[in-house]
Amino acid sequence: xxxxxxxxxxxxxxxxxxxxxxxxxxxxxxxxxxxxxxxxxxxxxxxxxxxxxxxxxxxxxxxxxxxxxxxxxxxxxxxxxxxxxxxxxxxxxxxxxxxxxxxxxxxxxxxxxxxxxxxxxxxxxxxxxxxxxxxxxxxxxxxxxxxxxxxxxxxxxxxxxxxxxxxxxxxxxxxxxxxxxxxxxxxxxxxxxxxxxxxxxxxxxxxxxxxxxxxxxxxxxxxxxxxxxxxxxxxxxxxxxxxxxxxxxxxxxxxxxxxxxxxxxxxxxxxxxxxxxxxxxxxxxxxxxxxxxxxxxxxxxxxxxxxxxxxxxxxxxxxxxxxxxxxxxxxxxxxxxxxxxxxxxxxxxxxxx
Amino acid sequence: xxxxxxxxxxxxxxxxxxxxxxxxxxxxxxxxxxxxxxxxxxxxxxxxxxxxxxxxxxxxxxxxxxxxxxxxxxxxxxxxxxxxxxxxxxxxxxxxxxxxxxxxxxxxxxxxxxxxxxxxxxxxxxxxxxxxxxxxxxxxxxxxxxxxxxxxxxxxxxxxxxxxxxxxxxxxxxxxxxxxxxxxxxxxxxxxxxxxxxxxxxxxxxxxxxxxxxxxxxxxxxxxxxxxxxxxxxxxxxxxxxxxxxxxxxxxxxxxxxxxxxxxxxxxxxxxxxxxxxxxxxxxxxxxxxxxxxxxxx
Lengths: 353, 298
Ligand SMILES: Cc1cc2nc3c(=O)[nH]c(=O)nc-3n(C[C@H](O)[C@H](O)[C@H](O)COP(=O)(O)OP(=O)(O)OC[C@H]3O[C@@H](n4cnc5c(N)ncnc54)[C@H](O)[C@@H]3O)c2cc1C
Prior knowledge:
The structure holds two protein chains of two kinds. Chain A is an alpha/beta fold. Chain A has helices at 34-49, 63-71, 90-104, 115-128, 219-225, 241-252, 260-264, 295-298, 318-321, 330-345, and strands spanning 20-23, 26-27, 30-31, 53-59, 76-81, 108-112, 132-136, 138-141, 149-155, 160-166, 172-176, 194-196, 209-215, 228-232, 255-258, 285-289, 306-311, 324-327. Chain A has two domains: 7-205, Rossmann fold (3-Layer(aba) Sandwich), CATH 3.40.50; 219-346, Rossmann fold (3-Layer(aba) Sandwich). In chain A, the strands form four sheets. Chain A has a seven-stranded parallel sheet with strand order 7-11-6-1-4-5-12, sandwiched between helices. In chain A, strands 15-14-16-17-18 form a five-stranded parallel sheet. In chain A, strands 8-9-10 form a three-stranded antiparallel sheet. In chain A, helix 2 links the parallel strand 4 (53-59) and strand 5 (76-81). The longest helix of chain A is centred in the N-terminal third of the chain and has 16 residues, at 34-49. The radius of gyration of chain A is 22 Å and the shape is elongated. Chain B is α/β, with parallel strands linked by helices. Chain B folds into two domains: 6-224, 3-Layer(aba) Sandwich (Rossmann fold), CATH 3.40.50; 255-295, no CATH class. Chain B is 33% helix and 26% strand. Chain B has helices spanning 42-56, 71-80, 98-115, 135-143, 199-207, 255-268, 270-277, 279-287, 289-293; strands at residues 6-10, 13-15, 21-22, 29-30, 36-38, 59-65, 84-88, 120-124, 146-158, 163-169, 173-180, 183-187, 211-213, 232-238, 248-249. In chain B, helix 2 (71-80) runs antiparallel to helix 5, helix 3 (98-115) crosses helix 4 (135-143) and helix 7 (270-277) crosses helix 8 (279-287). Chain B is globular and about 80 Å long. Flavin-adenine dinucleotide (FAD) sits between chains A (157, 233-235, 259-262, 273-278, 290-292, 294, 296-297, 300, 310-313, 316, 329-331) and B (17-18, 128).
């Protein structure tokens, strides 16, 4: 950190910093799909800047991730493959990624706003002394010559969006919420050049050791990946209400979600929560039952392709977001709806997996 | 134990975001009269430090960077049971982003460390106003302390042998990490259930005056502080874009009719129809998902 210079003084044109990078996040080789979503969005930014889109893949035996990164749109992959990187730990990953940045100078670096992405991005931004925007939900770039990343993120309890710029430091870094951007199409067999870099650390250099690691099929992840979600709120009035929602979800081949009010009431666990302090989801179909539509809930599901709302209050804000709305008592509507879907779908899921 | 271990908790005074309103015309925040609170995520961070005080008699110092009125947040910490509190305040720090914030806090922590060597720093996982979660890791990195984030359980700590064992939760796993002191933890709310302030501490807090440091006595370079020292700037704020569609309200004489029309509307939605007609296309987007979901290989 010695010789840190003020960000506002360092006015260069950064001509040697080029390219858009995405960090490929994974847990012991299992990818977090936010990385592919970011390749999809990064492709648009790279096109506007007329530069290459690169993926940074760090881990132990990550060839399959390198291949997939190409198939989801990377032009180039930077790879650091080392047994020390078997588990995510801040120090070696920060070291590896920072070294890549110093050597190959991207102008933009995107990571998922996940526990790993936030942990790593914060350390790397501090190491290379650049600006980092957290939790962005909109990305754009100004065309050359400014080439600035316009990273917009919700602020103040999601009530407002703020566009953040990093003018005098490179790379411009941002973490992006999962499910904010759509998955890009996969082009099988697409390949490109791989640049290998050494990690430059050994196990002896790292103080933190992983004693135990239990992969948990977190319900939240299943929720995040679901195509159909039937969510319930305070309007259920009773934990037993979720039984009804489960039946509807089952008829559709979907899963159950919840508002925070339902979680706070103790009717269902936090893993089911959708919204600002729960999961961001992007299913094809979201059915909101007895949910009023508070902004903190909406930000977690507004990107759903189709939203159906069932609420007994015709003025509930959820109807402003929904595509189809039913004013009525969910205890009457949901069972009939379940039956109707069962009949029409003939026992098949709405969308086949 | 050769000396009393020292645990520092970094806190922030934040506006109660639930109370903030947006001017619908200008898209700007109406912040006047908004009450300030101790960042809710910092309370379990402080509680974890106080539990170490109960168990090992550690010294607990709360520190914040903020305007003079942030003193209230520190008094709150004293009410819960913090021994001492430091307010880092100076005009030059105004408008700091996370990089400039961690710079100033780092300098103050170095000064604090020189007075009473720091064994552990605990932060909340994020604040409710900035929501970044970047300050804890930034401090860890600058101090060269071990960085342990999203901690849900402090399993073991040994101030003599300089070891710490924590459990952390990620989206896909639960991990147990063993690391070295000094370390910086960021903790999730589920780590504990904070205590209530005791009466003697409450009384102490009302009269408590924190130690006040400014840029000069922490040896800060003004060019690295506040707005000047921040690589990021807010270029504009705006209200979220309005929705571009109308909700079709489905009403009919009987519920069966309503239900059937909902089913029609769902099956007729362009995205759903396309996926049902061409499952091969659906496979493309869906392919990558199971890899992350599958629980095997743990
Ligand atoms: C910092 C912060 C973070 C937050 N994060 C989240 C988050 O992540 N997720 C989240 O969901 N919330 C979050 N909230 C809370 C949010 O502001 C709302 O309080 C919450 O979403 C309300 O949940 P609800 O819609 O279920 O309950 P309510 O707002 O009480 O709405 C219940 C609805 O049910 C309807 N109803 C009642 N009975 C029936 C019936 N029989 N049939 C049909 N309809 C019926 C009512 O008309 C009403 O519209 C957060 C708040 C804060 C301050």
